[in-house]
Structures are given as C-alpha cells and as structure tokens.
Amino acid sequence: MTHIRFADPTPDALPLHLVTKEAFKVWVSLLDAPLRAWVEASGFKANAGQVVLFPGPDGAVQGAVGGLGGEVDRKRGRFHAARVRAALPAGTWALANELPAELLEECALAWCLAGYSFGRYKDAKPPEAALVAPEGIDRARIERIAAAEARTRDLINTPANDMGPAELEAAARALAEEHGATITVTTGDALLDGNFPLIHTVGRAATRAPRLIDLRWGDTGPAITLVGKGVCFDTGGLNLKPAASMALMKKDMGGAANVIGLAHMIMDAGTPCRLRVLIPAVENAVAGDAFRPGDILPSRKGLTVEINNTDAEGRLVLADALALADEEKPDLIISMATLTGAARVAVGPDLAPFYATDDGDAAALSAAADRVRDPVWRMPFWDPYETMIEPGIADLDNAPKGGFAGSITAALFLRRFVTDTPRYMHFDVFGWSPSAEPARPKGGVGQGIRAIEDALPGLLDI
C-alpha cells in the first residue's frame, strides 16, 4: 500500500510549518509568546527532520513545525520534508508558511515519494500523515511523478520469480492499456525471423522466452524513442557471477523499469510527441545452448560482436533494440540500463551517469536535474577509447580486457548502433538505494527520469 497522493482540502487540517535554519529566527519571532516559549523549550532549531508538535488546551495536537535544515544539509542531502512526514502522527496537515518556489516543490514531492512502500510480500506501513496540496504547486504533476516513481520501484523490487520477461511484458501492456498506446511483442524464435539475433542469443538458454517489447503512443509532434534494458535476472551466463554479485540481479531490468516510469509521465501529461518504448526482455541463464566466451555473433546492425564475457550481456540486447530505434531516425533516442559496475565505482549509487552526443542536450539535462533534485553526471563519449572495443577478429568486443573505463567503453559500444540519429543519450544507472534515505527506502529507485521529464519540453522544442 502506498500513500503517494495529496489529501483534499478540509477545514480540519492541522497547520504544519516547514522551516529552514536560515528562516528560523524570523519565523520564531512571529509566534505568540506561549507558542514561542514552547518551541524554544523543545530545543527546536530547524535541524533537518526535527519535529515539534504544538499542544492545544486539552493536550491534543493542534499543529506542528518541521525542520528542513540549513544550506549545508540541503547540499549534502535532499527531500528532508520526508523525514518530517515520517515523524508526524496520522492526520491531515496543511502547510502554514511560505517557502521559496523550488523548495516548496521539493518538499511537496518529498512528501508524496515518502508515502511509497513495497507491500507485495509483507505488510508495509507507509507514514499516515497526509498533506493538503500546498498552494503554488502543480498537484497533478507532482502526483504523476510520484506515481511513475512508485511504478518503477515496484518493478525493480519484485523478485525474478515474479518478474520475468513475460511479467515485464504484462507491465508494459498494462501501461499501454492505461494510456491508449499500441504494443507489439516479438517472442522466442520469432526474434530470429525479425532480425534480432543478439536478443535471441542472450535469452535462448532460459526457460522463459526472450522478447522485444515495442510500445507506441502519439501521432504528432517530435519523435522520441526510449530503450530500456530488461534483463530480468542475470546469472552472468557461462561467465557465472559469484554469489555476492548475483544477489541484486533482480534489479538488472532497472533500465526497463525506468523507461516505463518515464513513459507514464510523458503519456499521462499528454506531452505532444510521438513516443516509442523498446524493451528487450530476457533472462541471462546457464544451459547447454547458452552463448559462450569466444563466440562471434551477428547483430541487427550487421556488425559482428566477439564475446569475451557472457556477463556483458546488457549491451548486446540493447544493441539490437538501438539499431531498430535508429532505423526510424527519431529526434532523440534515450537508453537506460543498469549496465556497468564501473559506473558505480566512478560515481557511487546516488548519481546517474549519462552520455550525450549533443552538448546542448547535456547542458539542458544537467540544469533540469539540479532543479528537480534528481542528480546526474555527464560522462564522455571518449573517442580515443574506440580502439578498446575493436578486437580485430570481429567488428566489436563486448568486454574489453583490462577493466579500464568500463562505463565509457560500454557507452561507446552502444553508440556504434546509433548511426543515423544525431541526438542520443545513454544512462548507466544503478536503480537501487543500498540504504534508506529520505523519500527513498532501501530498494529499487528511479534515476534520471525526473530530470528527463523536466528537460523534455526544451529537448523536443515543444
């Protein structure tokens, strides 16, 4: 159960003050004397997440104040209003003081995101304090973003026994039905007939058939194609992962989960564009017909790929999907994938590294990420490393030896399959919060999609 929506206005809503350290002195000076004495006696200093309840004459709660911390707190973390929500008792609350526009939007979003819980297998208890939508925010947009994030988290959090290629297809079909989109799916050996050899090869060893999911929505406007890696579980194939590395591989379809969440935002907002979503959905398993290290495989693009590690399978399934996307020459292609451990080593779990062929697109995305508190970091398509993915015996190497620049070489590999679309962006996300943070419980998480959603009107000139 989740509580990710705002409450409707009610005269019984309790006043809630959200105060930064910078505004604390002015705010407390405006209180009447008894309440000011109560706040001071309670030791409230507007520390991030600090809450003081206001008692009425009968001892019942008649209001509260929550701290948002100071500038350093907001630089080192975000969504501190979520901590306030978690500390408040059940009831309906209404914001009682003014906040700067960007901080107000962050607090409103934090409140909704903090209402998420994953309760499919165990009763979950999200915070029950509800907030009336504050004046000055776009309620529908905030709730849309929270719903998209919840959708993404649910998909990632669901274990592979209940989230295989067929279940990922079902999630895409539900999304299509909700928004009146069309969807086609190419499954099993039909992938060979459709010229998707890499998707078929990676998924053929699994008992659950591989497939390519193709969703379309919108008839007019600029064209954008989203491509999401849907490896529902990754054993590593014949280059079998050790147990510790396999433990979180239910999240290896995090790229697909992210583009499904992003697609929901785009369609629910009625964005004037032609949207296409491509998801290669597979399980990388071990069996007698699994692909092998040393194999040289054909691709939809016509490029041959030498397999030096079967655990570098995500770029293979994305390659065929990207080649298909590129054939239409849309205005923009965006791929999202939980692709490399190298990206985690480089920037950690919180930042979403991305690559862009267009400097203007990169700048617009970075600016949007700052606005909506969805951190991203641009990485380079570093051309001098192209030779690292050229093995000599084939056109491309799926896993260059040596381990240097692993995220960059993976991105360069993918770029080889986008040759006719000038504007391409690739996200190498983690898709997981390793520990609980404000508005982000431990588990699956969306990364980069709020930044893309905010930047999209400028990116597509709509």
TrEMBL record:
Family listed: Belongs to the peptidase M17 family.
UniProt-listed GO biological process terms: proteolysis
CDD domains named among the record's database cross-references: Peptidase_M17
Native organism: Kangsaoukella pontilimi
UniProt-listed Pfam families: Peptidase_M17 (PF00883), Peptidase_M17_N_1 (PF21337)
Designated name of the protein: Leucyl aminopeptidase family protein
Sample GO molecular function, one term: metalloaminopeptidase activity
Domain Cytosol aminopeptidase: 309-316
Hydrolase among keywords: yes
Top-level lineage group: Bacteria
Transmembrane segments: none
PROSITE patterns, per the entry: CYTOSOL_AP
PANTHER family attached to this UniProt entry: LEUCINE AMINOPEPTIDASE-RELATED (PTHR11963), PEPTIDASE B (PTHR11963:SF20)
An annotated GO cellular component: cytoplasm
Keywords, comma-separated and alphabetical: Aminopeptidase, Hydrolase, Manganese, Protease
